[in-house]
Amino acid sequence: MSLSDIQNRITKAEADAGRAAGSVTLIAVSKVQPDARVRAVLEEGHRSFGENRVQEAAGKWPGFREEFDGIDLHIIGPLQSNKVRQAMELAEAIHTVDRPKLAKTIARLAQEMGRCPDLFIQVNTGEEDQKAGVMPREADDFIAECRALDLPVKGLMCIPPVDEAPSLHFALLAKIAARNDLSGLSMGMSGDFEQAIALGATHVRVGSAIFGERVSE
């Protein structure tokens, strides 16, 4: 696969779903990828990227920003409270807001910094013990709590269980978003992004299909 192959598949999935071309943002997941691979995708003109770890993002993206305009960086991995300031300085969006303590820390720093990235609330749609995210039954209350803190909540994010049909989880996330008047849906990865687009995804997170298999750390 190449970047253009993925973009063409997204365009087709948008059309098949009766959605406008360009309604889906492709986040190229660049975590654990060598700089040369990331640079090649930047040189093709792509600008939206996703990183799991704030520390890795901090070592990679300030330099690329000096070379390339318009970079749109998304933090898509679990976020520790002590990394929030750095994440907010680096990124245009954070997709993993998942607990009140984190929301309050973001709100405090947003007041202090005078800016805040776009925020997505992570929902643990599979209710998996090992996975981050607010439980579906608690999502409405947590969304309301974040809004009460004046946080710019743009949408929801999920990572379906590996052994279940992802479409069930995409549909659940879309339902929670709709009843809370949220338009953003960060869902779908290399193996299932077309299904996610059919069910309303606005952001899909694709790594290996663009960059090749991750380089081990």
Account of the protein in words:
This protein is of the alpha/beta class and 217 residues long. The chain contains 9 helices and 8 strands. It has helices spanning 3-16, 35-43, 54-67, 84-90, 100-113, 136-148, 166-179, 193-198, 208-211; strands spanning 25-29, 48-51, 72-75, 93-97, 118-122, 153-157, 184-186, 203-206. Strands 7-6-5-4-3-2-1-8 form an 8-stranded parallel beta sheet. Helix 3 links the parallel strand 2 (48-51) and strand 3 (72-75). The model has no long low-confidence stretch (mean pLDDT 96). Belongs to the pyridoxal phosphate-binding protein YggS/PROSC family. InterPro entries: Ala_racemase_N, PLP-binding_barrel, PyrdxlP_homeostasis. Pfam families: Ala_racemase_N.
Architecture blueprint of SSEs:
Elements: H1 3-16, E1 25-29, H2 35-43, E2 48-51, H3 54-67, E3 72-75, H4 84-90, E4 93-97, H5 100-113, E5 118-122, H6 136-148, E6 153-157, H7 166-179, E7 184-186, H8 193-198, E8 203-206, H9 208-211
Parallel strand pairs: 1-2, 1-8, 2-3, 3-4, 4-5, 5-6, 6-7
Largest sheet: 8 strands, parallel
Strand content bin? 15-25%
Helix and strand pattern: HEHEHEHEHEHEHEHEH
Distance between the termini: 23 Å
Number of strands: 8
Radius of gyration: 17 Å
Shape: globular
Class inferred from helices and paired strands: alpha/beta
Trace the largest sheet across and list its strands. Answer: 7-6-5-4-3-2-1-8
> Uncertain runs with pLDDT below 50, 5 residues or more?
none
Q: Helical content, roughly?
A: 40-55%
Give the rounded overall mean pLDDT: 96
**H/I helix tally:** 9
Organism: Sulfitobacter profundi
Function: Pyridoxal 5'-phosphate (PLP)-binding protein, which is involved in PLP homeostasis.
Domain Alanine racemase N-terminal: 10-214
Pfam families: Ala_racemase_N
